[in-house]
C-alpha cells in the first residue's frame, strides 16, 4: 500500500520575488528613492529651516524604515490587524 503524498504549502506571493540576500527585489528599490527625492524637494522649498527640516527628516526616517524587508508583515500597535 503506497504512502500518501504530503501536501506542499503554496508559496506566499511576496516570497516568489524575493532574493536570498535580504529579500530586496528590483521593483522595491525606487520606492524609498522617491521618498528621498520628495524630502529633498520639501527641504529645498523651506530653505532648509531647522524646524521643517527636522520634521521632514523624522517623517523620512519613519517611511524608509517601514519599507525595510525586515519589517515585512510586522504590525505596529496592532494597526491593520483585521
Question: How do you describe this structure in short?
Answer:
Helices cover 45% and strands 0% of the residues. By secondary structure, the chain is an all-alpha fold.
Distinctive features:
single chain; 82 residues; mainly alpha; 45% helix
Distance between the amino and carboxyl termini: 45 Å
By DSSP (H or I, 4+ residues per run), the number of helices equals 3
Low-pLDDT windows of residues: none
Coarse morphology: elongated
Work out the helicity level.
Answer: 40-55%
Strand content: under 5%
- Look at the structure and give the mean pLDDT: 75
In sequence order, what are the helices and strands, one letter per element?
HHH
The protein's oligomeric status is: single chain
Number of strands: 0
Amino acid at each position: 500500500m503506497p504512502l500518501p503524498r504530503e501536501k506542499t504549502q503554496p508559496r506566499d506571493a511576496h516570497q516568489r520575488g524575493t532574493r536570498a540576500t535580504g529579500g530586496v527585489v528590483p521593483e522595491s528599490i525606487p520606492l524609498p528613492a522617491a521618498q528621498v527625492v520628495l524630502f529633498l524637494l520639501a527641504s529645498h522649498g523651506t530653505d532648509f529651516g531647522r524646524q521643517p527640516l527636522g520634521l521632514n527628516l523624522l517623517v523620512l526616517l519613519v517611511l524608509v524604515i517601514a519599507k525595510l524587508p525586515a519589517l515585512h508583515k510586522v504590525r505596529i500597535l496592532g494597526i491593520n490587524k483585521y
